[in-house]
Write a structure and sequence with these properties.
CATH topology of the largest domain: Rossmann fold
CATH class of the largest domain: Alpha Beta
Radius of gyration: 21 Å
CATH superfamily of the largest domain: SGNH hydrolase
Order of helices and strands: EHEHEEHEEEHEHEHHHH
Largest sheet: 5 strands, parallel
Distance between the termini: 43 Å
Shape: globular
Number of helices: 9
Mean pLDDT: 92
Structural class: alpha/beta
Number of strands: 9
CATH architecture of the largest domain: 3-Layer(aba) Sandwich
Length: 323
């Protein structure tokens, strides 16, 4: 008996692997799947500007990666004794201007270098609602706790999103001629506008993405994370306690779909070999110094050395620390 309406996965003309770098930017899907790709030692950069929810701020970040060499003092603003960038989330802010710049460029410069050679760019749009800073008219990534009266909140139309990306993407593809884009829409619901308002917001993202797929059919693709959660996981047990964000079980389900649709067979084999090592490194010994503990540690270290020799091209710097 069939108990779910399963969402058909696209048949992509490519597969992600451990050989081609991946840049990921956007909201929850980017964070959740990106951290799993990191865990399994893919050459991946996740959210170099921090979590970014709307498509215009995602585009601004990418535009800056293409056009800027680095951020400078003139790119920062000051509020409540914190230096910050409207292109970034609050985690980059600091009371010290030089430290804020260092935080930003420590993330920005490697992301720029990776984008030049990336095989894939994964974008996750979360909402079509944006905040425009009244002083400049620019859409901001984060309001940084500046009073709401300083912003105007508007919902982007599909046409506005399409126009912004149609203008930007040719330059991005010239910057990296081999780049392919995988677009997703976040299944996290933005509930402050109510059920209908959330659906209208998601609809704008879906319509804009569809138009860009038609405009760039060999470069712009879609992964149905939103549809999988809405149709296959149609149950509140797949949401966190706030009933808005997705749960760990939902993330694992999406990962299995992502794995099946988009990862190469070679990379799936590597993951199967890495997983025992990663689990062993995460295991906390109850009694250190025992014969059993030392044997386990020796086995773990031997496994690590064997895999490093077998797969020297993996992003071993992403290997989680021993707990």
């Amino acid at each position: 008996m069939k108990l779910i309406t399963e969402v058909a996965l696209p048949d992509y003309p490519f597969k992600l692997d451990h050989q081609h770098p991946i840049l990921m930017t956007g909201s929850c899907f980017t964070e959740n799947i990106g951290r799993l790709l990191e865990r399994f030692l893919f050459p991946v950069c996740v959210n170099p500007f921090g979590v970014t929810y709307n498509p215009l701020s995602v585009k601004t970040g990418l535009e800056n990666l293409v056009q800027k060499e680095r951020y400078t003092a003139g790119d920062l603003d000051l509020f409540n004794e914190l230096w910050f960038s409207f292109d970034h989330y609050t985690g980059f802010s600091s009371p010290d201007r030089d430290e804020a710049l260092e935080n930003i460029n420590r993330s920005f410069i490697p992301a720029k270098e990776l984008l030049k050679k990336a095989g894939y760019l994964i974008l996750t749009w979360g909402t079509s609602w944006v905040f425009r800073y009244n002083k400049t008219g620019e859409v901001v990534c984060n309001c940084h706790k500046i009073p709401a009266r300083e912003f105007t909140r508007v919902r982007l139309t599909p046409g506005e999103i399409i126009s912004a990306y149609e203008e930007f993407l040719p330059g991005l593809f010239a910057f990296n001629p081999d780049l392919k884009i995988i677009h997703t829409v976040s299944p996290v619901r933005h509930w402050k506008d109510g059920a209908h308002g959330n659906q209208l917001s998601k609809a704008s993202l879906l319509l804009a993405g569809e138009a860009l797929q038609e405009r760039f059919p060999d470069r712009f693709f879609y992964f149905p994370s939103y549809e999988i959660v809405m149709d296959e996981l149609r149950d509140y047990r797949f949401y966190a306690d706030d009933l808005v964000h997705t749960s760990g079980a939902a993330t694992q389900y999406l990962w299995e779909k992502f794995d099946r649709a988009l990862l190469s067979e070679a990379s799936r084999r590597i993951i199967s070999e890495l997983d025992p090592l990663i689990r062993m490194r995460a295991h906390r010994s109850i009694a250190g110094g025992t014969v059993a503990t030392m044997e386990m540690e020796q086995k773990r270290d031997e496994m690590l050395q064997t895999l490093m020799k077998k797969y020297p091209h993996l992003a071993w710097e992403n290997l989680p620390d021993i707990e």
